[in-house]
Design brief:
The protein is mostly helical and 68 residues long. 50% of the residues lie in helices and 0% in strands. The chain has three helices and no strands. 0% of the residues are buried.
């Protein structure tokens, strides 16, 4: 695999029937490809589990952003 310092993230809609072919291309070029489901699963696994925020704290943040 090639070491790169800069990458560009893109979102592609690829037919399921072509996914295997696309994965071959990804592997040949040393790229990384993930489905949106895989990205979501990774996010859910790494998010904090015990956040010290009350419901009131959350609503204050929402109001601050919405009505700022």
């Amino acid at each position: 695999m090639q070491a790169t310092t800069m990458t560009q993230g893109v979102y592609l809609n690829i037919p399921r029937t072509d996914w295997t072919l696309f994965q071959e291309l990804v592997n040949r070029f040393g790229w990384q490809a993930k489905t949106s489901e895989q990205v979501l699963d990774e996010f859910l696994k790494t998010r904090p589990q015990n956040v010290d925020l009350s419901e009131e704290d959350i609503m204050n943040e929402v109001r601050a952003v919405r009505y700022a």
